[in-house]
Design a protein that fits this description.
Blueprint: H1 6-18, H2 24-42, E1 46-53, E2 59-61, E3 69-79, E4 89-90, E5 96-99, E6 107-117, H3 131-136, H4 138-150, H5 160-182
Antiparallel strand pairs: 1-6, 2-5, 3-6, 4-5
Length: about 210
């Protein structure tokens, strides 16, 4: 993971080109807001954290294993062998796991969460994202940032019509990214079928 990979510089160059007169500090803030909104909408950043359960305890604090990440929602709870953990579990507040019933012995489970960026303080200008996300979703992040910026009133770059256009493109990109994440990044889901040349005559498609 890189805090400021080269792709971020290219994204900023494109934003400067399309937002003449915008201060870098304002653009960086809106880029940050766009990244947070994108991750919250799409669930594309998934993290797995191992939590040790103990007898007599129902509430546990946990943190994402990924640096610079903050828990947004629980996607799944599993046993360490990958099977579904059947006891009801939920997150009353981010970073807190609550289970419906206790365990009789110590037990490790894996909490699968969708995460977003954490606030590292004023010194860090750009979100700490895996580099592949900057590259994979640069179009969506650019559209979202431009839409937010052009929607600001009385600025040199204000343009309500273009703001609406870019925000629409951004929302469409978010929907596609979320759908792809839900399919496990498989093209149109699981479409593989048994090769017809190996099927019996009665099972072959017409």
């Amino acid at each position: 993971m890189a805090t400021n990979p080269p792709i971020v510089d290219r994204i900023m160059d494109q934003l400067r080109l399309k937002l003449p007169g915008a201060l870098d500090g304002v653009t960086q803030l809106e880029l940050w807001n766009t990244v947070d909104d994108f991750l919250t909408r799409t669930n594309v950043w998934i993290d797995e954290t191992t939590v040790e359960l103990k007898p007599g305890k129902l509430v546990y604090e946990f943190s994402p294993s990924a640096a610079g990440a903050s828990v947004r929602r629980i996607m799944d709870v599993r046993n360490t062998d990958g099977t579904r953990w059947t006891t009801k579990a939920w997150m009353p507040v981010p970073g807190t796991l609550q289970i419906a019933s206790g365990v009789s012995d110590k037990l490790d489970i894996v909490v699968v969460t969708a995460v977003t960026i954490a606030d590292p303080g004023k010194r860090q200008v750009y979100p700490s994202l895996p580099e592949w996300m900057w590259s994979e979703y640069q179009t969506e992040l650019i559209d979202g940032t431009i839409g937010r910026m052009m929607g600001q009133p009385a600025k040199p770059y204000s343009n309500p019509q273009l703001a609406a256009y870019h925000l629409k493109s951004y929302s469409s990109g978010c929907a596609q990214a979320r759908a792809m994440a839900n399919r496990g990044r498989r093209f149109e889901g699981q479409r593989w079928t048994f090769p017809q040349s190996y099927a019996s005559p009665m099972l072959r498609r017409p």
